[in-house]
Amino acid sequence: MNLTELNRIATAMVAPGKGILAADESSGTIKKRFDAIGVESTEGNRRDYREMLFRSKEAMSQYISGVILYDETIWQDAKDGTPLVKLIEQSGAIPGIKVDEGTQPLPMCPGELVTVGLDKLAERLKKYYDRGARFAKWRAVIDIGSGIPSMTAISVNAHALARYAALCQAAQIVPIVEPEVLMDGDHDIDRCFEVTNRVLNETFQELRAQRVALEGMVLKPNMAVSGKKCAKQASVEEVAEKTIRLLKACVPAAVPGIAFLSGGQSDAEATAHLNAMHKLGPLPWGLTFSYGRALQAAPQKAWSGKAENVAAGQRAFSHRARMNGLASKGEWQSSLEQKAA
Ligand code: 5MM
């Protein structure tokens, strides 16, 4: 393992002003997104949509540091025959790959899930590296509800995250470690804080136990937020203050960067929260975005599957990427959104 090189890539992934595009929707998830805009989820339509994003010159060259791909996409070519991975590299961004194989019910723990995909992962990582992937992603899902999460679910998911991260580093690939505490439910922000605290502590304990080099990874956590159905929604300032307090308590300064998931927040909320956190600096790690929905909802709507809308889709993507790029430096203002509208 070349740790200097892993650290160089991890640092580039969280460079100020830039963040990660999570375009690794599995077939089921992208179908849901396409259903919402009335587009059939065929292999060709998925390719055309992602090609539109990766050819968005302004977004990709100025605000996107890396792209997380799904297995289908990493092997696909653009309409002109250029591999989609090459389009990403040519824009100056780093290609990455989602390597988990989704979730399964966790035995003896009703309502809880464990992420799977460790079998043969070493072989798959080698193929992805040869294709150009320089980082990977594995997402664990922790739900908050009555009597859950159990320590069993937190512990087995943390164990799998660390096993994955060690395998990535051995294959010279930077692991994005994503333990997502879901924001579905009616819990308040303090319950989210308490559960995320337990999840992050357990995750770092496992990472250390399995000898993962913290300097060669990126953490992708949820923010401390109120559950979507909670009657009292925390303010932007409270989310920023509690999230930074949580991360400072749990994430060692050796970790080069933290890139948040958006988790179902609106585009504007995800941007405002990241921006507000940068007002609380200096911070010991790079802090940026690795959004899926909060970067793609607007371009999906603008594109709607029509070739004549490609330029509009790219404009919408570039706008959200720019807003989040500014937020990753604490330089975003809500008036910039109104101007664009
Ligand atoms: C883009 O969505 C990713 C893949 O999800 P599925 O495996 O369910 O299709 C997802 O892991 C994503 O990378 C993160 O949750 C961040 O995306 P959001 O939309 O939460 O920012």
From TrEMBL:
Keyword Lyase applies: yes
Pfam families reported in the protein's UniProt record: Glycolytic (PF00274)
The keyword Lyase is assigned to this record: yes
Gene Ontology terms, MF aspect: fructose-bisphosphate aldolase activity
EC class: lyase
SUPFAM superfamilies from the UniProt entry: Aldolase
TM helices/strands, residue ranges: none
Pathway(s): Carbohydrate degradation; glycolysis; D-glyceraldehyde 3-phosphate and glycerone phosphate from D-glucose: step 4/4
Its EC number(s): 4.1.2.13
Highest taxon listed in the record's lineage: Bacteria
Keywords from the named record: Glycolysis, Lyase
Reaction equations catalysed: beta-D-fructose 1,6-bisphosphate = D-glyceraldehyde 3-phosphate + dihydroxyacetone phosphate
GO biological process: glycolytic process
InterPro entries for the chain: Aldolase_TIM, FBA_I
Xref: PANTHER family: FRUCTOSE-BISPHOSPHATE ALDOLASE (PTHR11627)
Family from the record: Belongs to the class I fructose-bisphosphate aldolase family.
Name used for this protein in its record: Probable fructose-bisphosphate aldolase class 1
Organism: Bradyrhizobium hipponense
